[in-house]
Write a structure and sequence with these properties.
The chain has one domain. Helix content is about 55%, strand content about 10%. The protein is built from four helices and two strands; from the N terminus they run H-H-E-H-E-H. It has a two-stranded parallel sheet with strand order 1-2.
């Protein structure tokens, strides 16, 4: 027998719609700015985490690295900060450009 299917997959449709509506309201209520702010504030920790990962995984040490800072929305100042830290800034607009 395969893996059991989670009961979460069988929640009523209206419950799923309500949850999606709440998440959208949270985003519209200012969460996007907080997410981008957290990304910017965590730049040094992010780079240190990548360095520790590479250090503990010798097979990746010869690979080229591109660090990408992804957030739902990034303004020009946030993009500039990431770029100064050699991190490629991308937001949802960048990631979905040309998809439809």
């Amino acid at each position: 027998m395969g893996n059991p299917v989670s009961a979460m997959a069988f929640r009523p449709l209206q419950e799923l719609v309500d949850e999606a509506d709440q998440r959208l309201a949270d985003v519209e209520g200012g969460s996007l700015e907080r997410l981008a702010g957290k990304l910017i504030a965590d730049v040094n920790n992010f780079k240190q985490h990548v360095a520790r990962f590479i250090q503990t995984m010798p097979k990746y040490q010869g690979w080229s690295q591109q660090l990408v800072g992804i957030s739902p929305v990034l303004d020009l100042d946030q993009r500039a900060t990431l770029t100064r830290h050699d991190i490629i800034p991308q937001d949802l607009n960048d990631l979905t450009h040309g998809l439809g």
